[in-house]
Specification:
This protein is of the alpha+beta class. It has one domain. It has helices at 8-16, 70-79, 95-104; strands at residues 4-7, 28-36, 39-41, 54-62, 67-69. Strands 1, 2, 3, 4 and 5 form a five-stranded antiparallel beta sheet that branches. The radius of gyration is 16 Å and the shape is globular.
C-alpha cells in the first residue's frame, strides 16, 4: 500500500464524499495508518482535524468484492475535483500579497 500526503481540509472533503465510485454503500476502511503534523496517531477523527493539518495516510478501502488502496482511490477522487487545497508556509510580510493574489484567482485562505 502507498501513503498519501494531504491536509485536513482535503481529507475531510474526501471522507464526507458520497460518490459510490469512491465510497460504495457497503465500503469501510481497514488497516489505517495515520500521521498528523509529524506525529503518528493510533486513530484519527477526520472531522476533528484542522484544515491546515498535514496528514499522511495509508490503508485500504474495503469494498464488497475487493480491497482498494486508500491512496489510489483518493488520487482518483482528486482528479475529479474542481478545486485544490494547499498548506502553504511563507514569511508573514507576504501574507497580504498572497491573499490579494488568491482573491484575484477566486481562491481563499481557509485557515491560519
Amino acid at each position: 500500500m502507498a501513503r498519501i500526503k494531504t491536509n485536513g481540509a482535503e481529507l475531510k472533503r474526501f471522507w464526507a464524499n458520497t460518490d459510490p465510485q469512491f465510497w460504495p454503500t457497503d465500503s469501510h476502511v481497514d488497516g489505517m495508518w495515520w500521521q498528523v503534523n509529524g506525529a503518528e496517531q493510533e486513530d484519527v477523527d477526520v472531522e476533528a482535524l484542522d484544515d491546515c493539518d498535514v496528514v499522511l495516510v495509508d490503508g485500504a478501502i474495503v469494498y464488497a468484492d475487493d480491497d482498494k488502496d486508500f491512496a489510489g482511490v483518493m488520487k482518483k477522487w482528486r482528479k475529479a475535483q474542481t478545486h485544490v487545497t494547499f498548506a502553504v508556509e511563507l514569511p508573514t510580510e507576504h501574507e497580504d500579497a498572497l491573499a490579494t493574489f488568491l482573491k484575484g484567482l477566486k481562491g481563499k485562505i481557509l485557515g491560519r
